[in-house]
Design goal:
The protein contains six helices and seven strands; from the N terminus they run E-E-E-E-E-H-H-H-H-H-E-E-H. With about 180 residues, it is α+β, with helices and mostly antiparallel strands.
Length: about 180
């Protein structure tokens, strides 16, 4: 019997049933970073209920509704950055800005490409796959670096800790002159 909270296997995937309506199930899968509707008949196996598996947190995260109006409002606020949606989302991820405009303090200072993807998928309701990393690197990050809006942490690019953060605003010439002590 398939019920909300069940961990199910279907079409070589595993997911959690969010709701059952008629002959269809709304299933959350971590692989696809989102939700998909599947016919109940396509479910191969019901492993266990999500609540017994201790997946309450996972269910709450999966059930969270994204406020798409708020997301679009936030994207309009950064429209001066680029016409490219992915570039704007990348900037917001590196800046740790959530759709409601607040900052996420739990993010690392330097965001790796994988961190950027995860932030965008979870907080902005997108479903970018891991293959998008190269697209983010070649378009969004390159554009933001060129504009001087972000900087990297000067580690080797092959390092697993290589990441990006917002560029600190440069001091004005007057502030630099005042800070410099003449002998």
């Amino acid at each position: 019997m398939v019920a909300a909270g069940s961990v199910v296997e279907y079409i070589q995937r595993k997911g959690i049933v969010l709701s059952v309506k008629g002959g269809e199930c709304l299933i959350w899968t971590k692989d696809s970073y989102g939700r998909e509707t599947v016919e109940t008949a396509a479910i191969d196996k019901v492993t266990e209920t999500g609540y017994q598996a201790g997946l309450d947190k996972c269910m709450a995260e999966a059930s969270r509704q994204h406020d798409y109006m708020q997301i679009e409002k936030t994207l309009r606020k950064v429209s001066h950055i680029s016409p490219n949606r992915l570039t704007k989302l990348t900037y917001l991820a590196i800046a740790h800005i959530l759709p409601d405009g607040t900052k996420d303090a739990s993010c690392p200072e330097y965001m790796r490409i994988a961190d950027i993807l995860e932030f965008i998928n979870i907080n902005y309701g997108e479903s970018y796959k891991t293959g998008t990393r190269e697209t983010i690197r070649k378009t969004a990050v390159k554009e933001l670096l060129h504009k001087g809006m972000i900087c990297d942490n000067k580690l080797k690019k092959q390092s697993p800790k290589f990441g990006y953060k917002l560029q600190e605003p440069a001091k004005s010439n007057r502030e630099q002159d005042a800070a410099y002590k003449w002998n």
